[in-house]
Amino acid sequence: MAVNSQRLNITLDGEHAEKLSRLAERTHVQEGTLARSLLSTAIDEADPNAAEVVSLLDAIPDAFDRIQEGMRQAEAGETIPLDAL
Fold it and tell me: Where does residue 29 fall: left (phi above 0), alpha (psi -120 to 50 degrees), or beta otherwise?
């Protein structure tokens, strides 16, 4: 990895994971390599306008509910500290 790179773990739902797998197979590259490239392209093309970012976040299915659940888990001590990973 490059000196200024940052590792990011992403979990895909079954449908997107399967699509990524098929794309990687057709292009003869590893899934991680393809995912990195697709994410980099999406980030490069993303509009940094705050209204656009809010619209993008609002389009994520169940995002608000998942955030609320994560906050509940954190308050209940059901999380792992980053330095313990």
Answer: beta
29 in Cβ contact with 19 (< 8 Å): no
Residue 29 CB neighbour total at 10 angstroms: 14
41 and 30 Cβ atoms separated by less than 8 Å: no
- Taking only the tens place, the pLDDT of each residue in 26-80 is 999 999 999 999 999 988 888 888 888 888 888 888 888 988 998 999 899 888 8
Range of the domain at 20: 12-45
* Neighbouring C-alpha atoms within 13 Å toward the C-beta of 60: 11
Task: Kindly state whether residues 51 and 74 are assigned to the same domain.
Answer: yes
Q: Are 61 and 36 in contact (CB under 8 A)?
A: no
Q: pTM of this prediction?
A: 0.57
Q: Does some domain include residue 5?
A: no
